[in-house]
Specification:
This protein is mostly helical. Helices cover 63% and strands 0% of the residues. The longest helix has 19 residues, at 40-58.
Amino acid sequence: MSQACSISTGKTYGLQRVCRVWNFARSKDNWEDFVHLMQPATVKKWHSVALRYFWRWKSRRKAGRPPISQEMQDLIYKLSKENRLWGAERSRDVLCCE
């Protein structure tokens, strides 16, 4: 949330307001004392928006190559040691057809 608070664009007035309240409440020991400053509908909306952003971030697509099992790694290593003259394409063809 604090990273989002550092971003400032023209259309984020609501986000800036949330960040101000968030930072103010976070700086105090008991943030529940400051909830009365907002209407319940506002707190509920902020909570639902925060959950939506969290789950969108949590379920984002991970970058990079998918992992290969240890069994497949061992097979590739064995194949490359036994057939040193084979290139990557032939090794791939053998692995795909098995």
